[in-house]
Design goal:
Layout (H helix, E strand, L loop, with lengths): L5 E7 L3 H12 L6 E8 L5 H11 L3 E6 L4 H11 L4 E4 L5 E2 L3 H11 L3 E12 L2 E4 L7 H6 L9 E2 H6 L12 H10 L4 E13 L5 H4 L3 H14 L1 H8 L10 H10 L4
Parallel strand pairs: 1-2, 1-4, 2-3, 6-9
Antiparallel strand pairs: 4-8, 5-9, 6-7
Helix pairs in contact: 1-2
């Protein structure tokens, strides 16, 4: 049986400094066949030139240009253009190990009930690296916080079935909302037992920009509007600003007849 084509979607906005390293980590994968789609999201640095230069050297690469529309739109552009049945989104400054794709694809092939496969992860910067302490997955835990980084593998059909990433989410953590809508109605998740993803920490990373209290409130309001059914099921009511207390608080209010 032939290996399925895997499409690695790399959205890139002003990450020219790291793009070559990211692409090389994918091309070093022991899995084939692969296609790599670099989606240049209106970069103002040399990202496009670097992407086109990489494309000249590697026939597995495709470069797509679009007006700046945000990372969710860039990922969706790549997913729609992908020829593969399995997708791996990988941001333009992160890296993967050589065995990550192969192990994930094998598991997706063997177990059709599994929708998402990820792995253990490392955070790294010029100062060094450390393991990323990810909480164990469950739907109830996912209702309170995200523990699946965006560079997980899933089937293109499952992504299209839920409309891809929500492009109106400009307050960050759009990957969290993507996993909620993909998994809330069923499907298993598996974390591979090895370090296969390397998340680059930079001074201007999006996680820092979207970590403010205002962005957090916007995000929680958005999630509650879109997924009230999910939070009711998992937390007995809406997600609260103090997320870890949401279920306890909602349960108490329910006993008191206030929700």
């Amino acid at each position: 049986m032939k290996n399925p084509l895997v499409s690695v979607v790399i959205p890139c906005y002003n990450q020219g400094k790291y793009l070559t390293e990211t692409v090389q980590s994918v091309l070093a994968s022991r899995y084939r066949p692969l296609e790599v789609l670099i989606v240049n999201d209106g970069s103002t640095d040399d990202s496009l030139e670097i992407a086109l230069h990489l494309k000249e050297k590697h026939e597995e690469l495709t470069v797509i240009e679009q007006v700046n529309g945000g990372v969710a739109k860039a990922r969706n552009t790549g997913i729609k253009a992908a020829k593969g049945e399995i997708i791996l989104p990988l941001d333009g400054d992160d890296k993967i190990s050589a065995d990550y794709i192969g192990a994930a694809v094998g598991l997706l092939g063997d177990r059709p009930e599994v929708k998402v496969v990820y792995c253990k992860a490392v955070k790294f910067s010029e100062a060094g690296q450390k393991p990323w302490k990810l909480k164990p997955f469950s739907l109830r835990a996912l209702a309170r916080d995200n523990m699946i980084f965006v560079a997980a593998l899933f089937r293109k059909a499952d992504a299209l079935a839920v409309g891809g990433f929500s492009e109106e989410m400009h307050m960050g953590r759009e990957d969290w909302e993507f996993w909620i809508k993909m998994l809330k109605d069923g499907g298993e998740v598996v974390q591979l037992p090895f370090f296969g993803f390397y998340y680059r920490m930079t001074p201007d990373s999006k996680r820092k920009k979207t970590g403010t209290g205002r962005k957090k409130r916007e995000r929680i309001d958005y999630l509650n509007r879109k997924h009230a059914d999910f939070f009711q099921q998992q937390l007995n009511g809406p997600l609260r600003f103090q997320r870890s207390w949401s279920r306890v608080y909602n349960t108490l209010l329910g006993w008191m007849g206030k929700i």
